[in-house]
Write a structure and sequence with these properties.
7 strands; 7-stranded parallel beta sheet; single chain; 46% helix; 239 residues; alpha/beta
Length: 239
Protein backbone atom coordinates (compact mmCIF):
# COMPACT_ATOMS: atom_id res chain seq x y z
CA UNK A 1 0.00 0.00 0.00
CA UNK A 2 1.42 3.38 -1.03
CA UNK A 3 1.66 6.09 1.61
CA UNK A 4 0.61 9.71 1.14
CA UNK A 5 1.46 12.61 3.44
CA UNK A 6 -0.97 15.54 3.34
CA UNK A 7 0.18 18.66 5.18
CA UNK A 8 -2.56 20.82 6.61
CA UNK A 9 -4.73 17.75 6.29
CA UNK A 10 -7.27 18.65 8.97
CA UNK A 11 -8.67 21.75 7.19
CA UNK A 12 -11.48 21.90 4.64
CA UNK A 13 -9.56 21.22 1.43
CA UNK A 14 -6.96 19.09 3.20
CA UNK A 15 -9.60 16.84 4.77
CA UNK A 16 -11.29 16.30 1.41
CA UNK A 17 -7.93 15.36 -0.11
CA UNK A 18 -7.23 12.91 2.72
CA UNK A 19 -10.62 11.24 2.32
CA UNK A 20 -10.17 10.97 -1.46
CA UNK A 21 -6.69 9.45 -1.25
CA UNK A 22 -7.82 6.98 1.40
CA UNK A 23 -10.80 6.01 -0.78
CA UNK A 24 -8.31 5.39 -3.60
CA UNK A 25 -6.55 2.80 -1.45
CA UNK A 26 -3.65 4.80 -0.05
CA UNK A 27 -2.49 4.93 3.55
CA UNK A 28 -2.89 8.61 4.40
CA UNK A 29 -0.77 10.47 6.94
CA UNK A 30 -2.90 13.40 8.06
CA UNK A 31 -0.63 16.22 9.17
CA UNK A 32 -1.70 19.02 11.46
CA UNK A 33 0.05 21.73 13.40
CA UNK A 34 -2.33 22.93 16.11
CA UNK A 35 -5.32 20.91 14.90
CA UNK A 36 -4.25 17.42 15.97
CA UNK A 37 -7.66 16.60 17.46
CA UNK A 38 -9.34 17.46 14.15
CA UNK A 39 -6.80 15.29 12.34
CA UNK A 40 -7.48 12.40 14.71
CA UNK A 41 -11.23 12.74 14.15
CA UNK A 42 -10.64 12.64 10.40
CA UNK A 43 -8.50 9.52 10.79
CA UNK A 44 -11.24 7.87 12.82
CA UNK A 45 -13.76 8.68 10.09
CA UNK A 46 -11.50 7.27 7.40
CA UNK A 47 -10.96 4.08 9.43
CA UNK A 48 -14.71 3.74 10.01
CA UNK A 49 -15.17 3.79 6.24
CA UNK A 50 -12.61 1.04 5.75
CA UNK A 51 -9.65 3.27 4.90
CA UNK A 52 -6.15 3.45 6.34
CA UNK A 53 -4.79 6.60 7.97
CA UNK A 54 -2.81 8.04 10.84
CA UNK A 55 -2.46 11.51 12.33
CA UNK A 56 0.67 13.40 13.28
CA UNK A 57 1.53 16.97 14.27
CA UNK A 58 4.54 19.18 13.63
CA UNK A 59 5.24 22.75 12.57
CA UNK A 60 6.32 22.79 8.93
CA UNK A 61 8.25 26.02 9.55
CA UNK A 62 10.49 24.30 12.12
CA UNK A 63 13.07 22.59 9.94
CA UNK A 64 14.64 20.52 12.72
CA UNK A 65 11.37 19.13 14.08
CA UNK A 66 10.00 18.52 10.62
CA UNK A 67 13.12 16.57 9.67
CA UNK A 68 12.83 14.52 12.86
CA UNK A 69 9.16 13.72 12.26
CA UNK A 70 9.83 12.69 8.68
CA UNK A 71 12.81 10.58 9.71
CA UNK A 72 10.50 8.56 11.96
CA UNK A 73 8.04 8.07 9.09
CA UNK A 74 10.76 7.11 6.62
CA UNK A 75 12.20 4.54 9.03
CA UNK A 76 9.37 2.24 7.98
CA UNK A 77 9.52 2.87 4.22
CA UNK A 78 9.33 5.63 1.63
CA UNK A 79 6.46 8.05 1.35
CA UNK A 80 5.46 7.92 -2.29
CA UNK A 81 3.08 10.89 -2.40
CA UNK A 82 3.31 14.26 -0.68
CA UNK A 83 0.56 16.88 -0.91
CA UNK A 84 1.82 20.26 0.29
CA UNK A 85 -1.45 21.81 1.43
CA UNK A 86 -0.36 23.70 4.56
CA UNK A 87 -0.79 27.45 4.20
CA UNK A 88 -2.12 30.49 6.02
CA UNK A 89 -3.57 33.92 5.27
CA UNK A 90 -2.54 37.09 7.08
CA UNK A 91 -3.94 39.79 4.83
CA UNK A 92 -3.09 43.49 4.61
CA UNK A 93 -2.27 45.90 1.82
CA UNK A 94 1.48 46.06 1.48
CA UNK A 95 1.94 49.67 2.73
CA UNK A 96 0.33 48.57 6.01
CA UNK A 97 1.72 45.04 6.19
CA UNK A 98 3.91 44.21 9.18
CA UNK A 99 7.15 42.32 8.56
CA UNK A 100 5.86 39.45 10.70
CA UNK A 101 2.81 39.10 8.44
CA UNK A 102 5.00 38.84 5.38
CA UNK A 103 7.46 36.40 6.92
CA UNK A 104 4.94 34.05 8.51
CA UNK A 105 2.91 33.52 5.34
CA UNK A 106 6.05 32.96 3.26
CA UNK A 107 7.45 30.66 5.93
CA UNK A 108 4.44 28.32 6.06
CA UNK A 109 3.70 28.03 2.34
CA UNK A 110 7.14 28.29 0.76
CA UNK A 111 9.70 27.28 3.39
CA UNK A 112 7.26 24.65 4.63
CA UNK A 113 7.24 23.15 1.13
CA UNK A 114 11.02 22.84 1.22
CA UNK A 115 11.17 21.52 4.78
CA UNK A 116 8.65 18.77 4.08
CA UNK A 117 9.46 17.83 0.50
CA UNK A 118 13.25 17.83 0.39
CA UNK A 119 13.78 14.98 2.92
CA UNK A 120 11.30 12.76 1.03
CA UNK A 121 12.93 13.02 -2.38
CA UNK A 122 15.89 10.66 -2.16
CA UNK A 123 13.70 7.70 -1.09
CA UNK A 124 11.27 8.54 -3.92
CA UNK A 125 14.17 8.71 -6.37
CA UNK A 126 15.50 5.36 -5.20
CA UNK A 127 12.07 3.82 -5.82
CA UNK A 128 11.81 5.62 -9.19
CA UNK A 129 8.19 6.54 -8.49
CA UNK A 130 6.61 9.44 -6.66
CA UNK A 131 4.12 12.29 -6.70
CA UNK A 132 4.64 15.81 -5.38
CA UNK A 133 1.44 17.86 -5.47
CA UNK A 134 1.47 21.47 -4.28
CA UNK A 135 -1.79 23.19 -3.38
CA UNK A 136 -1.42 26.83 -4.36
CA UNK A 137 -4.01 29.47 -5.30
CA UNK A 138 -5.44 31.58 -8.07
CA UNK A 139 -3.80 34.45 -6.16
CA UNK A 140 -0.42 33.05 -7.19
CA UNK A 141 -1.45 33.44 -10.84
CA UNK A 142 -3.34 36.75 -10.85
CA UNK A 143 -2.36 38.44 -7.59
CA UNK A 144 -4.97 39.75 -5.16
CA UNK A 145 -5.36 43.02 -3.32
CA UNK A 146 -4.29 42.70 0.30
CA UNK A 147 -2.49 39.41 -0.31
CA UNK A 148 0.95 40.29 -1.63
CA UNK A 149 2.49 37.92 0.91
CA UNK A 150 0.13 35.04 0.06
CA UNK A 151 0.37 35.63 -3.69
CA UNK A 152 4.17 35.77 -3.49
CA UNK A 153 4.31 32.50 -1.55
CA UNK A 154 2.02 30.68 -3.99
CA UNK A 155 3.72 32.12 -7.07
CA UNK A 156 7.02 30.95 -5.57
CA UNK A 157 5.55 27.47 -5.30
CA UNK A 158 4.66 27.62 -8.98
CA UNK A 159 8.30 28.27 -9.86
CA UNK A 160 9.49 25.54 -7.51
CA UNK A 161 6.96 23.12 -9.00
CA UNK A 162 8.23 23.65 -12.54
CA UNK A 163 11.90 23.46 -11.53
CA UNK A 164 11.51 20.33 -9.42
CA UNK A 165 9.50 18.65 -12.17
CA UNK A 166 12.45 19.06 -14.53
CA UNK A 167 14.90 17.77 -11.92
CA UNK A 168 12.89 14.62 -11.19
CA UNK A 169 11.42 13.83 -14.61
CA UNK A 170 13.88 11.03 -15.38
CA UNK A 171 13.16 9.32 -12.05
CA UNK A 172 9.48 8.58 -12.56
CA UNK A 173 8.40 11.34 -10.18
CA UNK A 174 5.83 13.93 -11.21
CA UNK A 175 5.50 17.39 -9.66
CA UNK A 176 2.39 19.50 -10.18
CA UNK A 177 0.48 22.34 -8.58
CA UNK A 178 -3.26 22.64 -8.08
CA UNK A 179 -4.41 26.27 -7.86
CA UNK A 180 -7.93 26.58 -6.39
CA UNK A 181 -10.03 29.68 -6.81
CA UNK A 182 -12.92 30.39 -4.45
CA UNK A 183 -13.70 27.18 -2.60
CA UNK A 184 -16.52 26.77 -0.09
CA UNK A 185 -14.74 26.13 3.21
CA UNK A 186 -15.04 27.44 6.74
CA UNK A 187 -12.17 29.82 5.97
CA UNK A 188 -13.98 31.42 3.02
CA UNK A 189 -17.46 31.40 4.53
CA UNK A 190 -18.92 34.92 4.55
CA UNK A 191 -15.98 36.38 2.62
CA UNK A 192 -17.83 36.40 -0.71
CA UNK A 193 -21.46 37.54 -0.79
CA UNK A 194 -23.53 35.92 -3.55
CA UNK A 195 -23.49 39.04 -5.71
CA UNK A 196 -19.69 39.35 -5.48
CA UNK A 197 -19.24 35.64 -6.16
CA UNK A 198 -21.31 35.91 -9.32
CA UNK A 199 -19.20 38.86 -10.48
CA UNK A 200 -15.92 37.04 -9.93
CA UNK A 201 -16.75 33.51 -11.07
CA UNK A 202 -18.29 32.81 -14.49
CA UNK A 203 -19.78 29.58 -13.13
CA UNK A 204 -21.62 31.71 -10.54
CA UNK A 205 -20.69 29.53 -7.58
CA UNK A 206 -17.88 28.54 -5.29
CA UNK A 207 -16.10 25.27 -5.88
CA UNK A 208 -16.19 22.44 -3.39
CA UNK A 209 -13.28 20.82 -1.53
CA UNK A 210 -14.23 17.52 -3.16
CA UNK A 211 -13.73 19.06 -6.62
CA UNK A 212 -10.17 20.03 -5.65
CA UNK A 213 -9.60 16.61 -4.10
CA UNK A 214 -10.75 14.85 -7.27
CA UNK A 215 -7.96 16.49 -9.25
CA UNK A 216 -5.41 15.70 -6.55
CA UNK A 217 -6.54 12.08 -6.57
CA UNK A 218 -6.02 11.89 -10.32
CA UNK A 219 -2.58 13.51 -10.17
CA UNK A 220 -1.57 11.02 -7.47
CA UNK A 221 -2.61 8.07 -9.62
CA UNK A 222 -0.77 5.90 -12.11
CA UNK A 223 -2.88 7.42 -14.90
CA UNK A 224 -1.20 10.82 -14.41
CA UNK A 225 2.31 9.53 -14.95
CA UNK A 226 3.00 11.77 -17.98
CA UNK A 227 1.66 14.99 -16.43
CA UNK A 228 4.35 17.02 -14.70
CA UNK A 229 5.41 20.61 -14.21
CA UNK A 230 1.83 21.88 -14.59
CA UNK A 231 -0.12 24.54 -12.72
CA UNK A 232 -3.74 23.37 -12.95
CA UNK A 233 -6.44 25.83 -11.87
CA UNK A 234 -9.73 24.80 -10.28
CA UNK A 235 -11.65 28.08 -10.36
CA UNK A 236 -14.87 27.97 -12.36
CA UNK A 237 -13.33 29.85 -15.34
CA UNK A 238 -12.15 32.83 -13.28
CA UNK A 239 -9.06 32.98 -15.51
Amino acid sequence: MKRALVTGGSGGIGAAICRRLAADGLHVIVHAHTGLQEAERLVAGIAAGGGSAQAMAFDVTDRTRTESALKDLLAARAIQIVVNNAGIHDDAVLPAMKPAQWSRVIDVSLNGFFNVTQPLLLPMMAARWGRVINITSVAGITGNRGQANYAAAKAGLHGATKSLAIELASRGITVNAVAPGIIATAMSEGAFPKERLEQLVPMKRAGTPDEVAALVGFLASEQAGYISGQIIAVNGAMI
